[in-house]
Amino acid sequence: TVLGAAPELTERALRELAPDKRSPLGCVTFQPASPFATAFRDLQGGMSDDHLVAFIGSLAGEGATTTALCAAVSAAQQGRRVVVVDCDTRRRSLTKALGSNPDQGVLECCEEPQNWQAYLEEEPETGLHLIPAARMTNPWRTLVASPGLPVLINLLSENYDLVVLDCPPALRSGEGVTLASLARKCIAVTAWD
Q: Within a 10 A sphere around the Cβ of 113, how many other Cβ atoms?
């Protein structure tokens, strides 16, 4: 099922924003009537009953992180309590997009999932909650191998209306597909052409 399509965010559309807000997040947040922001509000119709949604692309750069972030912000604007989890612990695209660079993140949170609130960050413009991915200290450590991940996801699901998992690209490793399979709905994001 195709849930929707977002138009390309052009330089012209971005120029209408303040210089420090020229991003997809800025467009959804500060131009809610734009076609770009409207596409993500429409996406909410396809996931309004869902509480745990994973976003995944086949390759890096296809827009899965941008889509996850914009869908999460749109859901928050519609009054849902939303948390996004950066499950791509190597690239950390979602964490970087929100301007975060923590020393501890989702991997450490999975070691003590009952203390998940200590790892929570809030995006100042939207109030969106984030469990970021910290800089990797051990390249062999994976989120899939963390026994506390299912516990963390259950705790987040109990405390939020919507939990968004931003997963690593499917064709990079098996980790992205495995993480996406934990969600009740998986949204595959592809770039046109």
A: 19
pLDDT at 2: 62
**Residues in the chain, total:** 193
**How many Cβ atoms sit within 10 Å of the Cβ of residue 190?**
13
Q: What is the 3-state secondary structure (H, E, C) of the chain?
A: CCCCCCCCCCHHHHHCCCHHHCCHHHHHHHCCCCHHHHHHHHHHHHHCCCCEEEEEECCCCCCHHHHHHHHHHHHHHCCCCEEEEECCCCCCHHHHHCCCCCCCCHHHHHHCHHHHHHHCEECCCCCCEEECCCCCCCCCCCCCCCCCHHHHHHHHHHHCCEEEEECCCCCCCHHHHHHHCCCCEEEEECCCC
d(CA 108, CA 116): 9
Q: Which of 107, 129, 105 is nearest to 119 (CA)?
A: 105
pTM: 0.88
Question: Residue 1: its pLDDT value, please?
Answer: 57
Residue 129 has, within 13 A of its CA and on its CB side, a CA count of 17
Regions in the chain scoring below 70 on pLDDT: 1-3, 193
CA–CA distance, 33 with 98 (Å, rounded to integer): 22
């941008």: which residue's tokens? 66
pLDDT for the residue numbered 160: 96
Environment class of residue 193 by beta-carbon count within 10 Å: exposed (0-12), middle (13-18) or buried (19+)? exposed
